[in-house]
Design goal:
The relative contact order is 0.16. This protein has a single domain (4-181), classed as PAS domain (Beta-Lactamase), CATH 3.30.450. The chain is α+β, with helices and mostly antiparallel strands. Strands 2-1-5-4-3-6-7 form a 7-stranded antiparallel sheet, with helices on both faces. The chain has helices at 4-17, 58-64, 82-94, 170-173, and strands at 40-44, 53-56, 99-105, 113-124, 127-138, 154-161, 174-178, 185-186, 192-193, 196-198, 206-209. A hairpin with an 8-residue loop joins strand 1 and strand 2. It has 4 helices and 11 strands.
Length: 211
């Protein structure tokens, strides 16, 4: 994780879960993360695996210049990346394991903006596969931010968080792939999608190839 918001939100989530794999939605205290709220969101997980946005930060709305609450989260990424995002969300819920994604976005004719997306699983009323807490943070805020809307997000990379603490061993903590380039590595994630083949390797790092 590179962004301060991502690191702070992950550390808060990690502190809430204690010995559990996932904290409860009711454990989240907005006052405790008030400095992060503009860059955070909460997704509901519907039975058909739709992901409506239930809570959304003002700076994320400003990126699109519209209110995103109630929108299906899958719809805000490029159509070519939607199967990949759905697979990542399912992996976050099924494992459960947090994920960090590289994202790019930009209005037509402008230099794309690089962003970091964090996805963290939550229980709700004791149920797993219920909520996802996340953040979306730009590496910088160009002059057009909040003035010209972006149409969608493009996924560029993925990291799945696997071990106990990034401070102990950051290389062991993250498995990494590029979503568009072959030859990168990933810790064991059960994905098989349109242009990705990810081969399970247990604790060993897996290989990604282009179809």
């Amino acid at each position: 994780m590179k962004q301060v918001v991502s690191k702070a939100l992950f550390n808060y989530w990690d502190s809430l879960r204690g010995g559990r794999s996932t904290p409860e939605r009711k454990d989240i205290d907005p006052a405790a993360i008030r400095n992060l709220l503009c860059d955070t969101f909460i997704l509901e997980v519907e039975p058909r695996r739709n992901y409506p946005i239930r809570v959304i930060g003002a700076r994320i709305n400003a990126l699109f210049l519209r209110e995103l609450k109630g929108t299906d989260f899958i719809s805000i990424v490029d159509r070519a990346d939607r199967d990949d995002l759905r697979a990542v969300l399912e992996s976050v819920l099924d494992d459960p394991a947090p994920a960090v994604l590289g994202v790019s976005a930009g209005p037509y004719g402008r230099q794309p903006l690089e962003l970091e997306m964090l996805l963290l699983p939550l229980r709700h009323l004791g149920r797993t596969h219920a909520r996802i807490l996340g953040s979306l943070t730009p590496a910088a805020r160009p002059s057009w931010y909040g003035l010209i809307p972006v149409d969608c997000l493009n996924l560029t990379s993925l990291r799945i968080i696997r071990s106990a603490s990034p401070a102990q061993d950051e290389d062991a903590y993250f498995g990494h792939i590029s979503l568009h380039d072959a030859g990168h590595t990933l810790t064991d994630v059960p994905l098989r999608r349109r242009h990705l083949s990810i081969y399970s390797g247990g604790l060993e790092r897996s290989r990604l190839s282009s179809e």
